[in-house]
Design a protein that fits this description.
The complex is a heterodimer of chains A (204) and B (163).
Chain A: H1 7-32, E1 37-48, H2 49-55, E2 62-70, E3 76-82, H3 84-95, H4 107-132, E4 142-147, H5 148-160, E5 165-175, E6 178-188, H6 190-203
Antiparallel strand pairs in A: 1-5, 2-3, 2-4, 3-6, 5-6
Chain B: E1 3-4, E2 12-14, E3 20-24, E4 28-33, E5 37-43, E6 48-54, H1 70-83, E7 92-97, H2 111-124, E8 128-134, E9 140-145, E10 151-155, E11 160-162
Parallel strand pairs in B: 1-3, 2-4, 7-8
Antiparallel strand pairs in B: 3-6, 4-9, 5-6, 5-7, 9-10, 10-11
Helix pairs in contact in B: 1-2
The chains are: A alpha+beta (204), B alpha/beta (163).
């Protein structure tokens, strides 16, 4: 078995693995939005725990989010984040109706967003499952409006328990080549990260 | 990494995950909290205080990042305050955070354990807990004012309280 000698090599090959999963998630997202939206994996890197929230520019901004977690030994969390305007636009486009101007979200709008998270997460986890040879089952998604930093904190816990360096995968969304202010944050726990690294070592 | 802030350097300093910042009035210290707990310890008469952003309950022997764990953050914050000439006697604490941000059960739910571990660490250090704004299911933005010891707590998009 070949070994990956440096941390930067590990992160580089993790990038390849996650790019393959992102590619499948992008295809699913494109089908779900009638070709409107696709994704790209922009960056995979490690950051100190105390810098992650600021680096992702989450801080104290209120965001609309769809949250899913992976349960079991190979765990983690996936968070789809939007600002209010982009979330409203997506819901309106999916429901083929005008943008809701009311402050409260309707159940139908929430459902459109959570289904988006579900499609994205299932495609991503399905691809990742195949690549690492282990089943990854996301929980049902749910809709949340809160500080992005508060939600990210809790998602980071599984990695924070085992160290001070956090693996960050930054994914961009695009509409006809234009960047959208959406993000998906995938935070694997320690076991899942090890499983990914093991899959990479086997493949090298 | 811990930081020692002075009023010349900051007016409102952000305290990130696992960080500890101590400062003199008129400085203010701010954090955004989910399941993490913000621990503010201050000396009301001297106008000196500090904020620790606690991520997990117990260090279990780890000493590399004391601000990250409740049981090491409280003594480390007291030490930072002592560097600013603050005696242990007369210190008072206020805490906020420890929410359960995710609806699902499982190991990610650590807010309650963080709150309990912070309370135990404060009791062990003989520091009176003067006020708390903890638990629930929503994030908080807090601003601690070293001048008067007030802790402003803003619940995500809803309301503001001062404790």
């Amino acid at each position: 078995m070949n070994s990956l000698s440096t941390q930067s090599e590990k992160v580089q090959v993790l990038h390849e693995l996650l790019a393959a999963a992102t590619h499948e998630a992008s295809a699913s997202m494109s089908r779900w939005t009638n070709g409107l939206i696709n994704l790209s994996l922009d960056e995979v890197r490690e950051l100190p725990l105390d810098e992650v929230v600021a680096d992702l520019d989450l801080d104290d901004r209120l965001l609309t989010m769809v949250v899913l977690s992976l349960e079991g030994l190979l765990g983690g969390a996936m968070i789809l984040t939007f600002d209010e305007q982009n979330a409203r636009l997506l819901a309106a486009a999916l429901l083929n109706q005008p943008v809701n101007q009311q402050p409260e979200w309707t159940d139908l709008e929430k459902s459109a967003l959570t289904e988006t998270g579900n499609i994205l997460a299932c495609a991503y986890m399905s691809a990742l499952s195949r690549l690492i040879g282990e089943d990854l089952i996301p929980t049902a998604p749910y809709f949340l409006q809160d500080y992005g930093a508060s939600v990210l904190q809790q998602a980071l816990l599984p990695q924070a328990m085992s160290g001070d360096q956090i693996l960050v995968c930054r994914t961009g969304f695009h509409r006809h080549g234009e960047n959208l202010n959406w993000r998906v944050l995938f935070v694997p726990n320690h076991n899942l990260r090890e499983a990914m690294e093991k899959a990479i070592r086997t493949a090298v | 990494m811990n930081a020692l802030a002075t009023e010349e350097e900051i007016q409102t300093a952000t305290v990130g995950m696992g960080q500890i910042v101590a400062a003199r009035k008129p400085a203010r210290l701010s954090s955004v909290l989910g399941s993490c707990v913000g621990v503010a310890i201050y000396h009301p008469r001297l106008g000196v205080g500090g904020l620790a952003h606690v991520v997990l309950p117990h260090a279990n022997g780890r000493s590399d990042n004391p601000g990250k764990f409740a049981d090491t953050a409280v003594p480390a914050l007291i030490q930072e305050l002592s560097k600013l000439g603050v005696p242990l006697a007369g210190l008072v604490a206020k805490i906020a955070g420890g929410a359960c941000m995710f609806q699902m059960r499982g190991p990610l739910q650590i807010g309650d354990a963080n709150i309990e571990a912070v309370r135990q660490a404060l009791a062990k250090a003989n520091i009176r807990l003067a006020a708390q704004h903890v638990g629930g299911t929503a994030g908080r933005r807090i601003v601690f004012d070293c001048a008067d010891g007030t802790l402003r707590v803003e619940i995500a998009g809803r309301h503001v309280e001062t404790v």
